[in-house]
Amino acid sequence: METSSKKAGFVAVIGRPNVGKSTLTNRIIGQKIAITSNKPQTTRNRIQTVYTDERGQIVLLDTPGIIKARNRLGVYMMNAARSAAASVDLILWLVEASEYIGEGDRAIAKDLNSSKIPVILVINKTDTKKKDELFAVIDAYKGLCDFAQIVPVSALKGDNVDTLVEVMFGYMPEGVPFYDEDTVTDQPVRQIVAELIREKALRCLSDEVPHGVAVTIESMKYSEKIVDIDATLICERDSHKGIIIGKGGSMIKKIGSAARYEIEDLLESKVNLKLWIKVKKDWRDSDILLKNFGYDRKELTDGKL
Questions:
Q1: Where in the chain do CATH 3.30.300.20 domains reside?
Q2: What angle, 0 to 180 degrees and rounded to 10, lies between the N-to-C axes of helices 189-204 and 250-267?
């Protein structure tokens, strides 16, 4: 009896900050791995997630939002995005459902036009537009690149995401899965926990602080009934430390409480979370500190799509 061939391949998810890359990735795989917030630069690392069904397997590379780098961390983030887009079978370029095309998106289009990898334009946040308004958005973008396809979706509500997955499989080569069917990410548990804590900091703190915050997990000790976690929030200034602590420790308690809820859901266990704060001045411009905080890939050097 003949067996149908399976598909297996890699897809880079790229785009400007806040267009919904992490939300789309989480929606496709059906659970939260990549953190989200309404602030730019939420995703700092290239996060690899895995979607598997009867058709085969798609490995999604969720990348940092493409911006002009202003420090060494920014260089790392941009090259994480560029290196991901250079070594995949397909690129998803996410844009918002707007007719306005800024210089940032035009720069992305210029890079993509020099790439030989198929590009699907994904117009996200369609829930904010009427159907007839989407035609104008498609018309605005379709001349920028020779897109393989254009797919409108709402990552937040899940609209048309199944269609997007079907389209992606059409561009995947035949092959055996890279991971077993139960794998959803290559991220270590400690890294996911650290990112969940950073997400809560992003959501709770004022605009000037979050970009200068990193999180490291000092220890995770498992027992039969509880997981004890010690984590450190690293900020760049003493004034930021005071903001993170809050009056009477109110802010650090708020961050910890919100993070603990999701960490318990992730680990399926009770969690005792202790948060500490350290000041490391201008750590985003220190190669040594960036490597200490886990930004140790070759993306700390320059690169292009």
A1: 189-300
A2: 140
